[in-house]
Amino acid sequence: MAEWLEGKIAGKRHWSQELYSLQIDAPLPDFTAGQYIKVALEVDGERVGRPYSLVNAPDERPLEIYFNEIPEGPLTPKLSDLEVGDRVWVSDKASGVFTLDNVVSRRHLWMLATGTALGVYLSMLKTAAPWERFERVILVHGARNAGELAYGETIAEIQAAHEDAFTFITALTRDSSETALQGRITNLLEQGSLQAAADADITPDDSHLMLCGNSAMIKDVRAWLEARGMQRHKRHEPGHYTTEQYH
């Protein structure tokens, strides 16, 4: 049985349409960037919880989650209705192995995200580890439209702090923008458009990729990588890519 900590909503941001961030004051113990917590509310007499990656770096408080409201879902419509001061429950420790501890140091670290999976990478990028271990970090965020490209201020701060070591690429599937690529991440990989935008190739010697978000994206990118001789990273068998487990 999960043990729970009582938390309170410390802040809220409604980015666009169904996209929300919640900041939560709760006494969560230390965690590793990339891990997730469960967040729960009482729904019809039952405590309903779901996993959410932490957006805040380990040394930052309050806690922060980034989520998509699913209108028919049991939890997210109620989370998006919360206001500052409202009570919420969080798991008493963070979980997950989608961390930089499970990434092989190579020249380039590619972080591929769709939708709200962007948040987990921001937690990592606000720590020292990626900048100490990689020559370049390439963050790719795929979304449906420009309104779903959140956390612009945070990304601008990361860019300013790390300059040429950081590249941020956006890709839109249902919208066009002068600053974004057009299409699904997988198609852009196949076409070479993503690599051209980053001015970096994806090779077994130079690259480690982290994949988080839409299950179809993860499945397709895995197939693309494995067709090029790149394998999933395992604890006793160093590989070329890692994927988030709870999605």
Strand content range: 25-35%
Helix content: 10-25%
Pick out the low-confidence regions: none
Computed structural class: alpha/beta
Strand runs, count: 12
Instruction: Give the terminus-to-terminus CA distance.
Output: 21 Å
User: Largest beta sheet: what is the strand line-up?
Assistant: 4-3-6-1-2-5
Instruction: Give a quick account of the main beta sheet: strands, pairing sense, barrel closure.
Output: 6 strands, antiparallel
Order of helices and strands: EEEEEHEEHHEHEEHHEHE
Gyration radius, to the nearest Å? 18 Å
Number of helices: 7
* Rounded average pLDDT: 95
Overall 3D shape: globular
What does this structure look like?
- By secondary structure, the chain is of the alpha/beta class.
- Strands 4-3-6-1-2-5 form a 6-stranded antiparallel beta sheet.
- The chain starts with a strand and ends with a strand.
- The protein contains 7 helices and 12 strands.
- Helix 4 links the parallel strand 8 and strand 9.
- It is 22% helix and 32% strand.
List strands and helices in order, with pairings:
Elements: E1 4-16, E2 19-25, E3 36-43, E4 46-53, E5 63-68, H1 76-81, E6 87-91, E7 108-114, H2 118-125, H3 129-133, E8 136-143, H4 152-162, E9 166-172, E10 181-182, H5 185-191, H6 193-198, E11 207-212, H7 215-226, E12 241-243
Parallel strand pairs: 7-8, 7-11, 8-9, 9-10, 11-12
Antiparallel strand pairs: 1-2, 1-6, 2-5, 3-4, 3-6
Helix pairs in contact: 5-7
